[in-house]
Amino acid sequence: MPEGPEIRRAADKLEAAVLNKALTEVWFAFPELKPFESMLVGEKVERIETRGKALLTHFSNGKILYSHNQLYGVWRVIDSGEIPQTTRVLRVKLQTADKTILLYSASDIDILDQEQLAEHPFLKRVGPDVLDMTLTAPQVKERLLSARFRNRQFSGLLLDQAFLAGLGNYLRVEILWIVGLLGHRKARDLTSDQLDKLSHALLDIPRLSYNTRGHVDENRHHGAIFSFRVFHRAGEKCERCGSTIEKTMLASRPFYWCPGCQH
């Protein structure tokens, strides 16, 4: 599944296509959303917000389209009037005079108002987004040391969207390598210096990935510009200490690590 940086880049692409343009056609596959089609024609997309792996499309009439791609969902941008050749199942169509954005294969879709947004089960559960530029390392450190998270092993914590939204497996691997920690470690056992380094890495690595990743292939999930130091490099030499990178399973996901410099 794509992680926070890939979702944000997808949102950027959608915004570039339809932002502040009047919608000429709106179509939803699910019957419960059909009443909103006519309500949204003529409105504009004011912004597309990401919260971890969820997209919130904000319309000028105050309505919000919630969508979560889960494993198979994908957004595409086409020229209006074009008919894409695909075997995917269309779920959402938002058309403007020149560009149309399409959501395929996703099943977690809803139209909300601000009050419903505040009570949405997924959005209530997720933590602060790592790509929210108002989120700071001291705030992340405070979260690490909170009673809720300080006793959790990083192997599971860094995959838990309730801790920080937008993290995922490749980010977990790269963050822990950068700070030299193993997956079984816990915040309660770290020195102040280790906590500071981890707090910064939890923001710096996702933001670096967002800023440097190339075009995202929907079948590969990972772009080519962001440089993996350990992820998918089992059997290769660690660039920091020269030890051989190993692979294991942690929290049911493949975990890559260096036995020479992660402790």
Report on the structure:
The chain is 29% helix and 21% strand. The chain has 263 residues and is of the alpha+beta class. The chain has a four-stranded antiparallel beta sheet. The chain has a four-stranded antiparallel beta sheet with strand order 2-3-4-8. Strands 9-10 form a two-stranded antiparallel sheet. Strand 3 (54-59) and strand 4 form a beta hairpin. The longest helix has 21 residues, at 192-212. The chain is elongated and about 60 Å long. Mean pLDDT is 92; it is low at 215-224.
List the defining traits of the structure above.
single chain, four-stranded antiparallel β-sheet, alpha+beta
Describe the protein's topology.
Elements lengths: L3 H15 L6 E4 L6 H6 L4 E7 L2 E6 L4 E5 L5 E6 L10 E6 L3 E6 L3 E5 L1 H5 L2 H5 L11 H8 L9 H4 L11 H11 L12 H21 L33 E5 L2 E5 L6
Tell me the distance between the termini: 28 Å
Secondary structural class:
alpha+beta
- Order of helix and strand elements from N to C terminus: HEHEEEEEEEHHHHHHEE
Largest sheet: 4 strands, antiparallel
Number of helices: 8
Low-confidence stretches: 215-224
- What global shape is seen? elongated
Largest sheet strand order? 1-6-7-5
DSSP strand count: 10
Strand proportion, as a percent range, falls in 15-25%
Average residue-wise pLDDT: 92
Q: What Rg is obtained from the alpha carbons, in whole angstroms?
A: 20 Å
Which bin fits the share of residues in helices? 25-40%
What is the structure about, briefly put?
By secondary structure, this protein is α+β, with helices and mostly antiparallel strands.
